[in-house]
Amino acid sequence: METRKVQVTGGSTYTVSIPKTWATDNDVSAGTEVEFYPDGDSLFLSPRSEEERTRGTLDVTDLNGQALTRAVTTMYVSGFDIIELEGPKITTEQRSMIREAVQSLVGLEVLEETRDRVVIQDLLDSSELSIHNAVTRMRLISLSMLSDAISALAEHDHDLARDVIGRDDDLDRLWLVVSRIFRATLRTPKAAEELGLPREACFDYHSSARQLERIGDHATKIAHLTLNIEDPLPDEVVDAVSDLHADAVEVIDTSMDALFAEESDEATRLANEARTGVRAIDERVRAIDELLRDLEPARAQLLGLVVDSVLRSADYGGNIAETALQKAAPTP
Fold this sequence. Notes:
It contains ten helices and eight strands. The protein is of the alpha+beta class. The longest helix has about 30 residues, at about 295-330.
């Protein structure tokens, strides 16, 4: 760390010198324009970039299958606007995996394809993306998936279960968008300024979005389990699981309301209410376990996994409540 003394020039202008090592490393010299971003009692300085779009190049010679898909996804989440995939010869299989990756990511399109090169570009204006809207959408999708998964179980509806499984891709796409936005705010204060949110709030949204994505995963798991249940379930078991689901949804909804609350007192009240709800759900789960003892072992095991997924979803809601409490706490 280096320190500098603030000086006054011309009677009204405050000036401070910048470290030469930092200036050299970042190509800052006489005449270079820099940008300032206020953040509370801090002021961030960054060299002004002439290039508005970040470009990244990846050698895909030895990448195939899911490894190639993950590589493209990683470049996207890392914040590259233009992704150039290169190799001596890009195979048909590689092109298929690249297209699959592009289709799973919001805003990406293939702009150029040659024998040894594929260029992908993010066509969305990052300044128009809203992490708040993305998380709000994730909330709606994850809760509808969980609700429909329980309905599919109760009604023995395999078509609805398959529909829930299909919706998981939509939730994953939004999760990757949130991750991309969040990483951008860590990389440059300009991204946080364009969002109109402090970086701590972006962290809270990102943390909560991760919990919502996991809730969607458990809804998908319940749907898969439903496909393995051949006969309708006893009414008392269906009612018990439905009641457990209703309690879990109450926890998740209350936690999200706490996260989005503008007043700290309201956020704290709602978050504590959600945490209390998680503890109450534990008691309900023990009662359901008693019902499962009377079922055939294989069926009881499947339903036990369903109950566990609903319980874990409530726990993820509790995690969101913890994040809301931290967000509402006084800032040091």
